[in-house]
Specification:
The protein is of the alpha+beta class. The chain is built from eleven helices and 17 strands. β14 and β15 form a beta hairpin. α6 crosses α8. 28% of the residues are buried. The model has no long low-confidence stretch (mean pLDDT 94).
C-alpha cells in the first residue's frame, strides 16, 4: 500500500508519465476470486470475456470471444492460453474491494477491473493500450517486459485480430509475485508471459479521446438547437454571383459555432455525464414500478455497475449518476459529497438525504433507474 508521501511522489513523477514497479504493494495478497469462479463469469451472457491462446506456436495468437460454456474449458491444454474477463468488479464485490487501494486516483477515472487467468507460457502478446493500468499480481508469477512509448505510427501485426505490435524491444523486465503491482501509463508497450498458472487483476482507467469528447459534446449541443438556427447572409449583396464564397461572409457562422462550443457549463455537464456512464448500461435493470415510499424506508445499496460523481460549479452542485445530471442548490454540497462516497445506505442514513425534497426526488429516480437497489 502507498503511504501519503508515496502517493504524492507517484502522482508527481509517474502517473501518466512512466512505468513503475511496486514490489509487495500488497504485503500479504489473497486472491479475491479463484479461476473456477472466473470461468463461471465467462459463461454469463452479459459478461465480456475472451480466451486468447498461443498453442500452435508461441507467437501465433488466436482469440475467441465469450460467453463460453463449461465444455469449452474442459478440452483446453495445460499451457498457452489465457482467459480474460472484463469488469469483474461489477459482478464480484470481493474483487471490487481492490479498488479502495487505488483511491488516490479519482474514482470517476476508473473503467474496470479485468481479471486474467493464464496457464504456463500464456500471454496476450506484445501490445499497448490507450489507458493507464495497474497490474496487480495474484496467485503465481508473471514475467512482464516493458518497451517504449508507442503512437499511431507504431506498426501493428496484420495476422491477428489482436492489436499486437510488429516490433517489441524490451527495455525493462520484471517477474511479478503475488502482491506486486506494475503501473503502466498509456501507450507504453508491454508483454506479459505467465510462469506456471497465474492470476492478474488489471485496474484500468477511462480516458475519453478528443474525438469522443468532441462528438459527445457536440451531440449534446445539437440536441439543444432549433431548426431556425442556421446560416444567415451577413449582407446578401456582398457575395459574388460567380461561385466565389467570400471568407468574410462566413465570419458570423464561424463565430456562432465557436460560441456554442465555448459553453463551459455545457462542456462540464457533458463530461460529468459521459464519465459516469455505466460500462454496461443494459445491465442496470430499472425497477418495473417507481419507488414506493416503503422502499425509501429500507436500506439501499448502490448498483455495483453504477457510477456516482459530483461537481461544484458556480452556485450549484451537479450530481452525476450513470450518465444523468441532477442540479442541486449549493447548500446540498456536503450531502452530495457524502452521497457519492456511500455505497450502502442504511434506512437512517437515507432519511438524512430524503428529508430534503430535491434529494427525495433524485433518490426516487435513481431507484427507478436501477442505480440504487433495495438491499437484499
Ligand atoms: C493480461 O492480464 O495478461 C493482460 C493485461 C494487459 O496487458 O493489459
Ligand atoms: Co495491456
Amino acid at each position: 500500500m502507498f503511504s501519503k508521501a508515496d502517493k504524492q511522489d507517484f502522482l508527481a513523477n509517474y502517473w501518466q508519465q512512466k512505468p513503475l514497479f511496486l514490489p509487495s504493494f500488497f504485503r500479504k495478497f489473497t486472491d479475491p476470486i479463484d479461476p473456477d469462479s472466473l470461468a463461471g463469469l465467462a459463461c454469463e451472457e452479459f459478461i465480456e470475456s475472451r480466451l486468447i491462446s498461443n498453442t500452435i506456436s508461441p507467437d501465433n495468437w488466436c482469440v475467441r470471444h465469450g460467453p463460453f460454456v463449461e465444455d469449452d474449458f474442459s478440452h483446453l491444454p495445460t499451457s498457452n492460453w489465457t482467459l480474460l474477463v472484463q469488469a469483474v468488479d461489477q459482478w464480484h464485490s470481493e474483487t471490487a474491494s481492490l479498488l479502495a487501494y487505488f483511491d488516490f486516483i479519482p474514482n470517476w477515472r476508473i473503467d474496470d477491473i479485468m481479471v486474467s487467468f493464464a496457464t504456463d507460457q500464456a500471454g496476450v502478446g506484445p501490445h499497448y493500450d490507450y489507458y493507464d493500468v495497474f497490474l496487480v499480481q495474484g496467485a503465481g508469477q508473471r514475467k512482464w517486459q516493458l518497451g517504449g512509448k508507442c503512437n499511431a505510427n507504431s506498426k501493428l501485426r496484420g495476422d491477428t485480430d489482436l492489436r499486437l505490435l510488429q516490433q517489441f524491444n524490451t527495455e525493462q523486465e520484471y517477474i511479478l509475485n503475488p502482491g506486486d503491482v506494475l503501473y503502466i501509463p498509456p501507450q507504453y508497450a508491454h508483454y506479459g508471459v505467465s510462469i506456471g498458472e497465474s492470476l492478474c487483476y488489471s485496474i484500468g482507467f477511462r480516458s475519453p479521446s478528443q474525438a469522443q469528447q468532441l462528438q459527445g459534446f457536440t451531440d449534446q449541443i445539437i440536441d439543444g438547437l432549433a431548426e431556425h438556427q442556421r446560416f444567415v447572409d451577413p449582407n446578401p449583396h456582398t457575395g459574388s454571383v460567380t461561385g466565389e464564397i467570400l471568407p468574410s461572409a462566413l465570419d458570423p457562422a464561424h463565430a456562432g459555432l465557436q460560441q456554442l462550443v465555448a459553453n463551459k457549463l455545457g462542456f462540464l455537464t457533458w463530461f460529468g455525464k459521459h464519465v459516469t456512464q455505466s460500462k454496461y448500461p443494459d445491465t442496470l435493470l430499472p425497477l418495473d414500478q417507481t419507488a414506493s415510499s416503503g422502499l425509501l424506508e429500507s436500506a439501499l445499496v448502490r448498483n455495483p455497475g453504477s457510477r456516482f460523481a459530483f461537481m461544484e460549479v458556480a452556485d450549484q452542485v451537479l450530481l452525476f449518476v450513470d450518465g444523468e445530471c441532477y442540479s442541486m442548490p449549493l447548500a446540498r454540497l456536503m450531502l452530495v459529497r457524502e452521497f457519492c462516497a456511500t455505497t450502502l445506505f442504511s434506512a437512517d442514513a437515507l432519511q438524512r438525504f430524503t428529508e430534503h425534497p430535491d434529494f427525495y426526488c433524485v433518490i426516487n429516480e435513481l431507484l427507478s433507474n436501477g442505480s440504487l437497489l433495495q438491499q437484499q
